[in-house]
């Protein structure tokens, strides 16, 4: 059986990556592909617990401030578990794996946002993730202002409707997010063979059409 294909979605919260991942999943399945999806942090029993610690803005009230290095270590613990439990078995079965965030997020958020530096993140990836790289990364980079506005508005809706508050990162100032945005641009320039940036503030359907073109040109025809 042929190895599957590993695609990650990256971008700021509010960039639309979760919506685009869901739409790409439906399209790939309609084309006959076996698709496995997950998000990071989360996706496994361990990862879902880590997600609560890292994203819930109320967690620091009980746990205290989370140190940047602790935040990084928890992100990689989640990632290592997902690789072992979901990603590698799915690729071995020939599936297309779609992952909402991966190590690029750690390089952007912890490396740049928390000022830990890229090399520390990349060294962790080599050590903890056996340097498993995506075959393709779709980087959604609409304008910084529009991403932040959408993310904060979405989190307010979730608090009101679901009682969930994954707003810990959204409380950071705009300089934090500017460093993240610039880090994503640096990653895209460094790895153009893997990372395809989509910078448009276009409609959901227009962006999905662009994504389908990219994926159709890249995904091996034998992955079914």
Ordered list of secondary-structure elements with their pairings:
Elements: E1 5-11, H1 17-30, E2 35-39, H2 45-55, H3 59-63, H4 68-92, E3 96-100, H5 103-113, H6 118-128, E4 136-140, H7 144-162, H8 174-190, E5 195-198, H9 204-218
Parallel strand pairs: 1-3, 1-4, 2-3, 4-5
Helix pairs in contact: 1-9, 2-4, 4-6, 5-6, 5-8
The proportion of residues forming helix, as a percent range, comes to 55-70%
- CATH topology call: Rossmann fold
Q: Mind telling me the CATH superfamily name?
A: P-loop containing nucleotide triphosphate hydrolases
Biggest β-sheet description: 5 strands, parallel
Q: How many beta strands in the DSSP annotation? A: 5
**What would you say the CATH architecture is?**
3-Layer(aba) Sandwich
- Average per-residue pLDDT, rounded, comes to 89
Count of DSSP H/I helices? 9
Q: Give the overall form.
A: globular
Q: What share of residues are in beta strands?
A: 5-15%
Q: Which strand order does the major sheet show?
A: 2-3-1-4-5
| Count of the separate structural domains | 1
Structural class: alpha/beta
N- and C-termini, Cα separation: 10 Å
Radius of gyration: 17 Å
Low-pLDDT parts are none
Order of helices and strands: EHEHHHEHHEHHEH
User: Class, according to the CATH hierarchy?
Assistant: Alpha Beta
């Amino acid at each position: 059986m042929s190895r599957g294909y590993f695609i990650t979605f990256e971008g700021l919260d509010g960039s639309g990556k979760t919506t685009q991942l869901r739409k790409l999943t439906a399209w790939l399945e309609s084309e006959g592909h076996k698709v496995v999806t997950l998000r990071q942090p989360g996706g496994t029993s361990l990862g879902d617990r880590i997600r609560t610690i890292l994203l819930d803005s109320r967690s620091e009230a009980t746990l205290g401030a989370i140190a940047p290095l602790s935040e990084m270590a928890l992100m990689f613990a989640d990632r290592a578990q997902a690789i072992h439990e979901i990603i590698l078995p799915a690729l071995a079965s020939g599936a297309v794996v779609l992952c909402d965030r991966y190590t690029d997020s750690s390089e952007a958020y912890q490396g740049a946002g928390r000022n830990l530096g890229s090399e520390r993140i990349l060294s962790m990836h080599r050590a903890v993730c056996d340097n498993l790289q995506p075959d393709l990364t779709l980087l959604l980079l609409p304008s910084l202002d529009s991403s932040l506005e959408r993310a904060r508005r979405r989190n307010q809706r979730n608090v009101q409707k679901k009682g969930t508050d994954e707003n810990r990162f959204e409380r950071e100032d705009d300089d934090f997010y500017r460093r993240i945005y610039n880090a994503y641009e640096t990653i895209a320039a460094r790895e153009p063979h893997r990372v395809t940036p989509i910078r448009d503030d276009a409609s959901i359907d227009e962006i999905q059409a662009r994504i389908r073109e990219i994926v159709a040109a890249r995904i091996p025809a034998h992955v079914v």
